[in-house]
Amino acid sequence: MTTVKTRFFEKFNFPGIVGCIDCTHIAIVPPPANNVEYPTHVFINRKGYYSINCQIICDADLKILGMNARYPGSVHDSAVWTVSNINRVLHGNYTQNNDQTTWLLGDSGYHLQPYLLTPVVGAEQETPEGRYTRSHCTVRNTIERCIGLLKAYFRCLHKDRVLHYKPQMAAKIIYSCAVLHNIMRDRNMDVPNINIEYGNY
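Predicted structure:
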């Protein structure tokens, strides 16, 4: 955790950050309509297609620190976060160890918490809130770049593709892609000749 904090501070001069968090939708074929455990309708996301809503946390070097691909597309980002293990760990670290110097950065879709910082919506630029929000957005852009790179590495995860598997198997594929993504990041392997549209995933 200390190493991750150090890297964020070295790159962005923003102290205490242990990761940036966001969710992204991975398209899948709909489960059978009569599936009791995974009914079809719960996989329809707000954009109208079937998906798994995948939570990702990354470090300053675009490596994936945590992933949760268990929830269908209809589940909101903040709901996935609420029941996640990392939420419980950070909550315990804050309440039991009184750690007030460790934060994740998330967008305005998340609720502000003592260990999850969000931007100040509508903050005027040349105010402390505005400067904080500008820095926040600069650092949080790492998760958008991470997701864009993950989907550039593995086109099967891109929004224009569809995983033709049951949700359980689709989740395993997503996790496997994350492991391979980290291996490629360790080796500084970039995607040649691909224009990654960050945020358009």
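Summary: Helices lie at 2-12, 77-82, 85-97, 128-153, 167-186.
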